[in-house]
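User: Study the shape:
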Amino acid sequence: MSQNIDALARANVRALTPYQSARRLGGNGDVWLNANEFPLPVPFELSQQTLNRYPECQPKRVIERYAAYAGLTPEQVLVSRGADEGIELLMRAFCEPGQDAILFCPPTYGMYSVSAETIGIEYRTVPARDNWQLNLPAIAAQLDGVKVVYLCSPNNPTGNLINPDDIRTLLNMTAGKALLVADEAYIEFCPQATLAGWLKDYPHLVILRTLSKAFALAGLRCGFTLANKPVIDLLMKVIAPYPLATPVADVAGQALSEEGIVLMREHVRELNANRAWLLEQLPQLAVVQQVFPSETNYILARFSDSPKVFKTLWDQGIILRDQNKNPGLEGCLRISIGTRTECERLIAALQALSVEQA
């Protein structure tokens, strides 16, 4: 019976390997350092009780508050079910399946390729250089037929910012040909690096944002696409009629209040301090070969025996994210920044392994 159903499915979906989210990979830990979430819940009280009515497509309070936070006008903001929906909406609005292509530079976020495969759009990859920066000549050689270029800065999973001069060069290279989409899911940890101020100069620049990371609302599934009005108008043609549930809009509006933004910035200071502590501790461990600089709420590190480290910590309830399958990341694990207590447990477990290795 299942064979008949499989035969009905699109060939590219039959062959698709779905995105392996942290929750899909499972685990029974109590120190979750694998999904780049804020480690503690933030309390909210629901105030909207009109659940018998459909929500606004673009909730006014959420849009206005996010626009004020980002330094933009409301017409430059679209809210969606996480930034993941924004990634897909851009493909649906701008790419013709079987004809157009997208481009991105691995190692980077896995949903760009999954969304493209799901829709039936070709994706091209131009591997980043050894320092995780853009290979601009190689990108230029691949741009023919590309409608959307995805750029993650700070990049997941490497944690680095992309050189702004290179981004400007790429914007000039793609002008009139393709959108350049800057995924800023982690920008709250390095707000000085945002490209939001560049929108006035580049009509084809698009920025993706989320409440999942610094705002501590990964379970809310609320993201934003920032762009000039012509882009937003096109995305509004393909977005679902009611992308945000009423309780989601309610909590998002509270998170984007003045008090909510102050709280988020306190969280960022706390995680950045824990990151600095981990960046001091990790290089001293015998099992650690290399620690990469980070502008985010996670650190990428290369280990002498990463499968053993991953499994040993997993068995102790400390869950990291294995990056071995990503190009150029052999032996690497990604460590989300947790509470100071969680960071101390991580270091203690790695110290025990280092003693064993010695």
Notes: The chain has a mean pLDDT of 94. The chain is about 40% helix and 15% strand.
